[in-house]
Amino acid sequence: MKYKNYIWDFGGTLFDTYPAFSKKVVEILRDKKIEEDYETILKMAKKSKSHLIDYLNEKYTLSDRELKYIRKCEKYTSLNSRSPFEGIEEILNYIISNGGKNFIYTHRTFHSAMELLYHYKMFDYFEDIVSKDVGLERKPDSEGFEYIIDKYDLEKNKTLSIGDRVIDVESSKGAGLQTAFFGEGVVSADIVFQDFSDFMKLINEGDYND
């Protein structure tokens, strides 16, 4: 493998959470007699929940209570509607089988992350899960990545960060890590991919030195 350590974002990278969240947002708005296009909501959610919330608040002047409910509404969707991306388990297992380590760094609470990991029996793939509960600065600040690097004494040139948003790339670059972007668009990352079968090939283009 080209890298030894892999630090994963959670929603939108390991798990396909955006569709269920976006459908729930459309449903909530419809109950308020507000019609919004699902694809528009999905696109904004993929950028960030804060971006979506700002858009909705500016357009419809929603109350703080309503905005908070929208921000948290993913937890009212079924676990089965938030499945892992195709091929992700194969990659996680491959990394471990070849002497690598997987970590998670997420803005979610530990409970929120563990709920999905246990449901899909994926907990054992990860060395550590650094969540919102640890109290670190949010991305694009690099503190979360630096925390993992220092805690596990990781070599930066052998550590790859994988995320689906620009702030994932920016924050991991700030920590001096190699970066991978999962998605479309022009992003200044070391690796850009749209499918995990491609990712598997990309991490095998070179070997790390023990």
Automatic annotation (TrEMBL):
SUPFAM superfamilies: HAD-like. One of its GO terms (cellular component) is cytosol. One of its GO terms (biological process) is DNA repair. It comes from the Bacteria. Pfam families: HAD_2. One of its GO terms (molecular function) is phosphoglycolate phosphatase activity. This is Haloacid dehalogenase superfamily, subfamily IA, variant 1 with third motif having Dx(3-4)D or Dx(3-4)E. It comes from Geotoga petraea. The lineage of its organism: Bacteria, Thermotogati, Thermotogota, Thermotogae, Petrotogales.
